[in-house]
Design a protein that fits this description.
The complex is a heterodimer of chains A (about 425) and B (about 950). Chain A has about 425 residues and is an alpha/beta fold. Helix content of chain A is about 30%, strand content about 15%. Chain B has a 4-stranded mixed β-sheet. The two termini of chain B are about 35 Å apart. The chains are: A alpha/beta (about 425), B alpha+beta (about 950).
Chain lengths: ~425, ~950
């Protein structure tokens, strides 16, 4: 089926039933060969933090300011210089401006899906959504390819993940905390710590008993994702509740206040700090969400008073914190919304708003092998589209995987032997790593 | 063949066509005519392409009006087309816009719609066709002929005929070319294959090219979807499964007797699938109890069912379940999901807080209990009014004040459910159109709010016409009343606030307080503003007449029922007509939507799936089955219990989860039971029932009101149960059945294994482990003994509620007290009976005399609580009980041995029992339906 013939109109249905897909062998041969020949460097990072900005942040009012654009487009904010000469970003992101040298800023990233859910699926997977199968989120792929120790979750989402595990199956989905930490307060995911009167060996005995008794579906399990997933979650839950490590990782009140303060005292900032603690204790992939970017109305006051200060403190705190802990080299950071917003300001509300705009957006990369302090790509005069060749979400996804040592051309096989390429159309943005 | 045109009118027209059209000369002449790619292969043809039939479909096929191209709301390069077409006037205007050069009839070849798409450098969207190609020639010839479009020439597409209308593949590499014929309302027909868009619902089973060439893939069934003009037509594609057994024809098939099973069997035969065997009695008793009532069956009921040898015991048990109060409770919960009973969205709809969603639930529950026909229940919602017939505004407020202050059950006696209309997310006409279609039609029409629906026949105009119907119905927060009641409302408010001018939150607080003190407070009303000439319009006309001017035009606003052609003038309440349309037997959605949702509950997958997404591109997996159930449901006067019985007595429902080589991958054709995680409320209650003492569990089952399936647990955002949230109870906010989630998660596993709530339940002194320990004269479990149990907290709440009612009663004037005494007694008796088993309860008389005489709950003697049965059960008995109360079956010999050994090796038998109960509620068998 040729998708390029119709630009859109792809129905969102999970037509390829999850149950009928199981993952066969992976063909890594090609990538390995290239790696051995020195043509690709192996991964730089072994863990990742994915900051998702659902709603779609305005690129003009954040990382792609256009001070010379006409009044109808420019917006209320002024650009400021950063600690990297020549790179300017929005005046309401001063702390991020102070650590721009850690960030690779991608401008003029472009795609075509202007609906939240489809856009979100796209930037969470790196493959354009298709009706035939659902691609897995980055975290799920990492949970499968490079799982964490059993007593710690491979992937955690604070508070929720923007996309699930797709065809990999539910057992690779993120642990969603369902809540966010608050500054200075103890935090824990409910059920992670054992009650005082229950000893660890008692829990072990119970688990052994459960394994012996839970045999009724042993036969069906191999073919049923639900049963398999339940089994997997059960085993993992057991490992986690008997481990001190997981419990400690979640408890942000262990951090000194001076360290905690640099993340900002709102729950997004503290979630960023939690993300840092989690990757520090061995979690492979942490998703942190900061929503509220869908600014169809009152774009400027909402950004200035709400989203921008939060992002500014949280993200700068995270990058500086990772460096202070010596984790920046090992941790790939990726920040993105599902699309940009219309360069032309709408007039529906008194101060104006911006609508969905996938044709031009920004993305941020940091950590691992990414060279910070550079801008890659460029948008045109009004930030209405890429000035030259567009960078696609597929390209960025391929680069993100590459930074993590996962071959973006990894192939998965369905039971029918149909090969599925992890990132269908993307190629690595080499400049990120040069 | 299956007509895409689902409306009855469409069917009738189709019938006529079959009788006359196809055999007529028009068909014979026009169809063999070459297709457009041949007719326009060279540029000098005389034919003039038609804007609707050729130009717009061609642009659709080329992708011009797609979302990322000129169909985007911002357009592209300042050129905007209507997304997915069908707004001909706007598109024509955009194409011919002055000064843009898109269409230039004087310099044809310089027209941008020819020059740009044929040149990759010029066109950001890339090259779409070559100069001189048929596509180029079509557009060129249209421009050369004057680029005309006449609104009057727009025709209805009667039918889109696909040949063949069904494909059966047998092997790899097979190919079938689809041919698509459009039949127009004037009787003309044309082969439009090159102008259609083709897509596959599962290209692993069948892939399709842009030219309509279908290629075989894996075995299974799917649909190829063809789109042209307004039509979206799915064509079924099947490739049967071949196994050694089916090849030899050695598979024995019993002939099904029920219509449901015959229809399913027909499909399975086509697919070469052999269905699984009948499930065991143990599986059945558990599955059917959980599915019909949401309640885990009690151990003794499981045992008596298993020991029953009568051949009709399954049917009798089904009847028993359908007659039990839990049926009404559980389905009121499900129906609350579909109708959007959300506490958040009902905030401020009533002056008294936190009751509106409970009233909604009780209103539904009573009707389901009484098995009121489905259409009548819906009628009470759709045509709702706030006041009963003949009820004055003041009487209404008095009644509602009493209801909201504790007499919730009385709300169910009222005729209708106006709360549905007053929700915050159901205020704008377009929100109502979407929410109404979701709740009662199982259709998602939101796409058509802004553009032609890509997978359905709805155009933006259809949506707007439908939304228009909802503009005159007013219902929102408690302060909004009809013009006639305003004065009375203000008087009431003045009385409550001592004449002070209060606004917003202040006023709400004052009213809330007054109602707690037993004062009558004002309630909001639902009313319909009739659209006729307004007073102003009347005055204007009068003035114009006097001055001898032409009166200004005045048109009474009108809307259209979805899919209907006739306008409905809003000079009267549109809702009776809307209701009449819903229950009309020709309605294509109403019965199907309900039947399909009920089916989905029993099979874990709808006949149309997702269950709320009936659209042309998402056809039912078994259309005959859905048609049959829907029409029989209507023939049985929308009898819900008939529907439930018909489904659960079928072979299809009673199949085992064990699969064979032919049905192992089948999920959509009901050939075996699909294990699924049980719904949030059901899991929550199961845990309470399984871990609670026999007595507590029996009470829960009979009283129901503490159970999650009966709305017994908090539902507001700040007061909802963590467990219910983690297990995905519906948030009932976004007009989507997906508001409820049944996927498992790590957090769920952690909750069941280690949440403080779980440990507390197992060790609770009202729990089953404690009960057994008392019987065996063992030590009680350790934890949970020193603090108040959740049971005690709930009991204490009951004590407090009795006291507050008594105090309220004491404040009433004597005349009112006389009137209320009976109600008060009734309430007292109900609660006293519940508390009396366990605590000393003072008489109502003494409480009225002195409400302070009952400062806390005083427990009766412990011996009285355990009951008479002191004979000690054996360990085998205990293990058997544990199995029956969790997994609804007996343990086998191995399991008994494993459990015995575990208990014997534990530090104490008490710890052993706790561990066993913990393990059983953590098995997969416990949490899934099987």
């Amino acid at each position: 089926m040729k998708f390029h013939q119709t630009c859109d109109g792809v129905s969102r249905r999970d037509l390829l039933k999850i149950g009928s897909l199981s993952i066969g062998g992976l063909t890594m041969a090609g990538y390995d060969r290239l790696a051995a020949a020195g043509q690709v460097k192996s991964g730089f990072a072994d863990r990742a933090i994915f900051i998702e900005l659902p709603g779609g942040p305005s690129h003009l009012d954040t990382f792609d300011p256009k001070p010379n654009a006409p009044d109808t487009h420019r917006g209320a904010f002024k650009p400021i210089s950063t600690n990297v000469p020549g790179i300017q970003i929005c005046e309401h992101l001063p702390k991020i401006a102070g650590c721009m040298d850690k960030i690779a800023l991608l401008r003029g990233v472009s795609h075509t899906l202007a609906a939240h859910r489809l856009g979100q699926e796209y930037v969470n997977t790196g493959s354009k959504p298709t009706p035939a199968l659902e691609y897995p989120s980055y975290g799920s792929v990492l949970a499968k390819e490079q799982p964490a120790d059993p007593d710690i979750p491979s992937a955690v989402a604070i508070p929720k993940a923007g996309h699930g595990s797709g065809f990999l199956g539910i057992r690779y989905s993120s642990l969603e905390t369902n809540s966010q930490p608050n500054f200075g307060r103890p935090y824990g995911v409910r059920g992670i710590s054992l009650p005082g009167d229950l000893a660890v060996d008692e829990v072990q005995r119970r688990q052994t008993l459960l394994r012996k008794l839970d045999r009724k579906f042993a036969e069906l399990e191999k073919n049923d994702q639900l049963l398999e997933g339940l089994d997997q979650f059960g085993e993992q839950a057991y490992s986690m509740i008997t481990s001190e490590r997981a419990r400690n990782a979640f408890d942000i009140s262990n951090e000194p206040q001076s360290f905690a303060k640099q993340f900002g005292e709102d729950s997004f900032g503290q979630s960023c700090m939690l993300a840092l603690r989690l990757v520090e204790s061995g979690v492979r992939f942490v998703t942190v969400q900061l929503g509220g970017w869908d600014t169809h109305a009152d774009n400027f006051s909402r950004l200035k008073d709400g989203q921008l200060p939060k992002l500014d403190a949280g993200l700068s705190g995270l990058l500086n914190g990772l460096e202070q802990r010596g984790l920046l080299q090992q941790t790939a950071v990726f920040v993105t919304g599902e699309f940009g917003r219309t360069p032309k300001i709408n007039t529906r509300s008194s101060e104006g708003g911006r609508d969905h705009y996938p044709r031009c957006m920004f993305m941020l990369m940091a950590g691992g092998g990414v060279r910070g302090g550079q801008v890659i790509g460029e948008s045109d005069d009004t930030a209405s589209g890429p000035r030259h060749e567009a960078i696609t979400p597929d390209d960025v996804a391929a680069s993100f995987y590459h930074n993590l040592g996962v071959d973006p051309t990894l192939e998965f096989n369905s039971t029918t032997g149909r090969p599925i390429t992890l990132v269908r159309d993307g190629s690595i943005v080499q400049q990120l790593f040069s | 063949m299956k007509s895409f045109w689902q409306t009855p009118q469409g069917r009738r027209v189709f019938g006529v066509l079959v009788l006359f059209g196809i055999s007529s000369a028009a068909y014979a002449e026009s169809v063999p005519a070459p297709t457009i790619d041949t007719r326009f292969a060279v540029g000098d043809t005389k034919e003039v392409p038609d804007f609707q039939k050729h130009v717009i479909p061609l642009m659709g096929k080329l992708g011009c009006n797609g979302r990322s191209c000129h169909g985007s709301f911002q357009g592209r390069g300042d050129f905007q087309l209507s997304l997915f077409g069908y707004d001909f006037a706007a598109d024509h205007e955009a194409l011919l816009a002055r000064g843009t050069g898109r269409v230039d009839t004087s310099d044809i070849d310089e027209s941008l719609i020819l020059a740009k798409p044929s040149d990759a450098d010029l066109h950001e969207g890339g090259k779409r066709f070559d100069q001189g190609s048929w596509q180029y020639n079509v557009l060129r010839r249209w421009i050369a002929s004057g680029a005309a479009y006449k609104e009057s020439s727009i025709q209805e597409l009667d039918r889109l005929q696909i040949i063949p209308d069904e494909i059966q593949f047998k092997s790899d590499g097979q190919q079938v070319s689809l041919k698509v014929v459009a039949h127009w309302e004037d009787g003309s027909a044309e082969d439009v294959t090159p102008l259609c868009r083709f897509s596959s619902n599962d290209d692993v089973i069948a892939a399709v090219t842009e030219n309509g060439l279908v290629q075989s893939g894996d075995s299974g069934d799917t649909h190829i979807v063809v789109s042209y003009d307004k039509a979206v037509v799915p064509i079924p594609v099947i490739r049967p499964i071949v196994t050694p057994a089916t090849k030899q024809g050695s598979v024995a098939r019993s002939t099904p007797t029920k219509p449901i099973d015959r229809l399913i069997d027909q499909k399975l035969q086509k697919l070469g699938i052999v269905a699984s065997d009948r499930c065991t009695d143990e599986e059945f008793v558990r599955r059917v109890s959980l599915d019909i009532t949401g309640v885990l069956p009690a151990s003794d009921r499981v045992e008596s069912f298993l020991q029953d040898n009568a051949s009709d015991k399954r049917e009798r048990y089904i009847d028993e379940l359908l007659d039990s109060p839990a049926y009404g409770a559980w389905w009121a919960t499900r129906m609350s999901d579909w109708t959007g009973n959300s506490a958040e969205q009902l905030n401020n709809v009533l002056p008294v807080r936190n009751v509106s969603n409970k009233l909604w639930f009780k209103w539904l529950q009573k009707r389901l209990d009484e098995n009121m026909p489905y259409d009548e229940i819906v009628s009470g919602i759709v045509t709702a009014s706030t006041r009963e017939e003949g009820e004055s505004y003041l009487d209404y407020c008095r009644e509602m004040t009493e209801i909201c202050n504790g007499d919730l059950d009385r709300y169910a006696e009222r005729r209708s459910l106006p709360l549905f209309w007053a929700r915050r997310n159901f205020q704008k006409p377009e929100e109502r159109a979407i929410g109404f279609a979701y709740a009662f039609l199982g259709v998602r029409i939101e796409c058509a709010q802004c553009h032609k629906h890509p997978f359905d026949q709805w155009s933006k105009q259809d949506f707007d016409d439908f939304a228009q119907l909802f503009t005159t119905v007013r219902a929102s927060n408690a302060n909004v009343v009809s013009p006639q009641s305003k004065e009375l409302r203000d008087e009431l408010n003045a009385k409550l606030t001592d004449g002070k001018e209060l606004k917003g939150g202040e006023l709400r607080k004052a009213i809330q307080k007054a109602s707690q003190n037993g004062k009558v407070v004002p309630f909001g009303e639902l009313f319909v503003t009739k659209r006729s000439l307004t007073e102003r319009q009347k005055r204007q006309r009068e003035l114009a007449r006097k001055k001898g001017r032409k009166p200004p035009p005045a048109r009474i606003p009108a809307g259209k029922i979805l899919g209907e052609n006739d306008e409905f003038e809003l000079s009267q309440d549109p809702r009776p007509a809307l209701m009449q349309w819903l229950r009309d037997e020709s309605n294509p959605y109403f019965a199907k939507a309900l039947v399909n949702r009920v089916w989905g509950n029993y099979f874990g997958i709808g006949i149309v799936d997702p269950t709320d997404d009936m659209n042309l591109a998402n056809p039912p997996s078994n259309a005959a089955l859905l048609d049959h159930l829907a029409s029989e449901f209507m023939r049985h006067d929308f009898d819900l219990k008939w529907l439930h019985r018909e489904i659960v007595t079928s072979d299809a429902y009673q199949r085992s989860a064990e699969t064979n080589a032919t049905n192992i991958n089948d999920r959509a054709n009901f050939s075996h039971h699909l294990p699924r995680r049980l719904p949030a409320e059901v899991v929550f209650d199961m845990v309470m029932l399984a871990t609670g003492s026999t007595k507590q569990a029996n009470e829960l089952r009979t009283e129901l009101d503490q159970m999650a399936i009966a709305d017994g647990q908090g539902r507001t955002r700040n007061n909802s149960s963590f467990a219910l949230e983690v297990f995905g109870q519906s948030i009932r906010e976004t007009n989507c059945d997906c508001d409820r989630s049944d996927s498992p998660s790590l957090l769920q596993a952690i909750y069941l294994r280690n949440d403080a709530e779980m440990h507390e339940r197992i060790a609770n002194r009202d729990g089953w482990v404690s009960e057994i320990c008392r019987q065996l004269e063992l030590d009680a479990p350790q934890s949970g003994t020193d603090k108040m149990s959740s049971r005690e907290r709930q009991d204490d709440k009951l004590r407090l509620s009795v006291l507050s009612r008594v105090k309220q009663y004491n404040r009433m004037p004597p005349a009112r007290q006389e009137k209320m005494l009976q109600t008060a007694e009734k309430q007292y008796v109900r609660i006293a009976e519940r508390l009396g088993d366990r605590y000393e309860v003072p008489s109502l008389e003494s409480l009225i005399k002195d409400p302070t005489c009952w400062p806390s709950l005083v427990t009766k003697n412990v011996d009285e609580l355990i009951g008479d049965d002191k004979s000690k059960p054996s360990l085998d008995d205990v293990i058997r009980q544990a199995y029956l109360r969790t997994l609804s079956r007996y343990p086998n010999a191995d399991e008994t041995e494993i459990a015995t050994q575990y208990i014997n090796e534990s530090d104490s038998p008490t710890k052993g029992l706790e561990g066993l109960m913990w393990a059983l509620v953590n098995t997969k068998e416990f949490i899934i339906s099987h």
